[in-house]
Amino acid sequence: MSLRSRLGRARNAFSVQVRAVRSVSTVDASTWDALEEALILADLGVSTTADVIAAVRQRADVEAVDEPEVVIDLLRAELVERLGSGDRGLARGGDPSVWLFVGVNGVGKTTTVGKLGRMEVQAGTSVVLAAGDTFRAAAADQLALWGDKVGAPVISGAEGADPSSVIFDAVEHAAAVGADLVLADTAGRVHTQGNLMDELSKVRRVAEKGAGTVTETLLVIDSTTGQNGLVQARRFTEAADVTGVVLTKLDGSARGGIVVAVQEELGIPVKMVGVGEGPDDLMVFDPVEFVDALFELDDDVEA
Length: 303
Hints:
Blueprint: H1 9-22, H2 29-41, H3 46-62, H4 68-83, E1 97-102, H5 109-122, E2 127-132, H6 137-150, E3 154-155, H7 163-177, E4 181-186, H8 194-207, E5 213-222, H9 227-240, E6 244-248, H10 258-266, E7 270-274, E8 282-284, H11 287-294
Helix pairs in contact: 1-2, 2-3, 3-4, 4-11, 5-6, 7-8, 8-9, 9-10
């Protein structure tokens, strides 16, 4: 199933606005107002929306465009171009590689670790899961269930144990058994609590003290939080050197434009998106497919 067929509310919220623009005969001030409204409703944010509209208007003026459909094509191309930069691959390096997953409570970090573990095992990677969320009682149990599903060992500690030590132990275990990759869950942190963010910085430092190398720090954001997710991203980037974003619940959000805002304002690429609750509902983010999907209504899309 394609990304475009799974975007649901994000696609329809935007494409309904675009359909109204397509229905007019010529481009005027109301056309630009409608496109600006569509981008803001999709949650690109005010500043990013203003930049995008200004760029498209300038190109339309240069090319003497007065047809709404051509303007929409220019907008589509502008969004693809803005999303096109940044390495979306998940980096490897070291024996083993370590990918840390960070974010606030309730965004789906543990589930994302499990789903990505499943993808990697299916691709032939030997994986160890680290239950670094030692403050949420159910987190280690939840990750253990994923470990059973995907056939990957889970290293955990006692409830309330030092998360850094758990992840360090997982890295050492992975090195001892020759595993390729450690996927490390971490406790949910509120980005306004400095002491917890300092602890996250410590987790990253300790994760590299042994045999492993942290090659990815993935910030998991619930896409339904919209612009608040951007505030989270700024703070986590300062604390943990975030290398990429995983956007969860994109299938149920009307705020898919946060993808563009994250890339534009932070220079951090969205690498994966969650589009459902099933074990295989984690997908590599494709900018072209994503932007194309935003411009299509349900009756344009095949499952």
